Amino acid sequence: MATVSAIPEHLYAYADHCTRGAEQLQTWVRAVLTPALRAYESGGGTSCSGLDSALAREIAAAFYTDRDVRTVGQAFMEVNGANVRKPTMPISVQEKSVNAVFQRLQAQYVNQARMDAGAALAKRMEKNPGSVNLKEITDELARHANDPYFNAGFFNGLERRQIERMMSDPTGIQALVSAFASGAVSKGTADSVAQGLGWLAVDTRFPVNVDHYFITPAEQTAFLKGLLANPAASAQFAYHMDDPEFRSLWDGSASQNPELRPLLMQILKTHPSWPPGDTPATPANLSWELRFANNLPYPSVAPHGVDRNGKPYSRDELAVLSWIEFHKDTILQEARARNIDPKAIVAAIAWEALHNKGNQAVRAFRGQLPAVPPLNYHQSMGPGKVHIDSEVAADVEGELLPRQGNLGRQDVLTTSDGSIRYIAAILAKYAAVTEDFQNRPSIRQNVPVLVNLYQGSDFDRWRSWLSNPRNRQYEALNEMGLWAQSPEGRRLLDDSLRLWGQP
Questions:
Q1: 299 touches 326 (CB < 8 A)
Q2: Nearest partner of 383 among 303, 454, 304, judged by Cα
Q3: Rounded to whole angstroms, how far apart are CA atoms 488 and 492?
């Protein structure tokens, strides 16, 4: 089988540069050439009909070629998986694998026009649609019942309250299931749908709420059964559902519908990363932020509770590995985006879940690397227990993540995906600070040092440590760092890497 190589960053740079050139030339044709040709013809000159159009078509072809070059780079990055690399290093992978990813990405571009048409319909829907406007919308949706990309574009273009309104309409439910089947529903839209399922009217009187529409148990059931009847839609809905959203539906008022829990669990099992192992006989005893792990079977790396060498894992370790497997796509995506070892993200989450089970967020850390947190580190949230009001979390905003206040940060960190993004950004910032000192070795793949800093330092103190020539050797001597380099920790982290197909 043929092996191919590329440096994605070079492909991105080429595509971006050429795309800008094509856009500028297209603008020149439209603003300068076309008017000049029309003026020449109107003054009695020879007809130049079609010259500007032909040139515009050629420029458009060049534009799409440039886009394909960028897509090739994206395909190489995706196939490269969890491997950490310098931006200038080539990626060598199997040609068949790159072609498969490239074809999938190309298909997404082709369907964009259909999504744009759906988005145009969304703009015609009133914020609080009356019967006339609603009929206009549902009639159009009915004509596109078998076009999942049109429906995805439509729902992606709606506000939360409009989505909730469509969830109480049979045509809207059918279109929403179709939209999920496309795989193109945005995370924000999926979150609004999950929230809408929770606004349940349990008797004949609908509660009054100016911010939300309510759905009946029958409508809730119809949507969930519609998902289960469409495996692609069910898998996408499960993929988008975050742990807190699942718990909110499972434990909240939505569960007053007796059909919700069994249907929701069936849908969850269609998640593309649902662990394939045995069903545990007992619950795990993990820190609160990973309690969702008790809903999962054993992980693929230990489907019967033992590793590939026949050594058993504890119930808690198995639950952590299952949780990591369930969230492996987000972990890999963020690790790849930040160019850090994904095992560092796993280590931060796993240690907190296994060894910091209490609610106390301030602990004493010791070691030669700066590892004593400021006293105002007190409120943590989500997997990995990122401290909401810490300078470290705030410092990665604006540069690596959108800027948030404490309340906004708290909302993001209540989600598993949000916590993973913050952990990856914090680890990447420590690696970037290290690279400011050219005489210092990179720590992008040094998992014990990365998590040692994550657990108990800040960026200014790390810079101070690096700038002192007497500090020569990196040592991970706090609890998280020591665990990451212990046999127990290395075993779990190495097996977690196998979740991404690594040996």
A1: no
A2: 454
A3: 7
Q: Tokens for 360?
A: 């106390």
**SS3 state at 399:** coil
**Cβ 351 vs Cβ 484: under 8 Å:** yes
Between CA 310 and CA 317, with CA 313 as vertex, the angle to 5 degrees is 150
Q: How far apart are CA 492 and CA 487, in angstroms?
A: 9
Cβ count near 265 (within 10 Å): 12
Predicted TM-score (pTM) of this structure: 0.76
Q: Convert 430-440 to b/e letters by CB count within 10 Å (16 or more is b).
A: bbbbbeeeeee
Mean pLDDT per segment of 10 residues, for the chain of length 503 residues? Answer: 78 75 70 74 66 64 70 79 68 76 76 91 91 93 93 95 93 96 91 92 58 86 97 94 90 91 95 93 93 93 93 96 94 90 96 81 39 50 89 90 88 91 96 94 95 93 94 90 96 89 68
The one-letter code for the residue type at 142 is A
Q: Identify the pLDDT of residue 4.
A: 81
Taking the alpha carbons of 166, 168, 169, 175 in that order, is the dihedral positive or negative? positive
Q: How many helices (H) and strands (E) does the chain have?
A: 24, 4
Contact 193, 248 (CB under 8 A): no
Helices within 200-284 (DSSP H only): 217-228, 231-240, 243-251, 260-268
What are 385's two structure tokens? Answer: 């227990």
How confident is the model at residue 92, as a pLDDT? 79
- Alpha-carbon distance 73 to 6, whole Å? 7
- Judge contact between 340 and 450, C-beta under 8 A: yes
Residue 16 is predicted with a pLDDT of: 76
CA angle 485/490/493 to nearest 5° reads 125
What is the CB-side half-sphere exposure of residue 337 using CA atoms within 13 A? Answer: 16
CB 433 within 8 A of CB 462: yes
Model confidence pLDDT, tens digit, residues 136-150: 999 999 999 889 999
428 token code pair: 């990447």
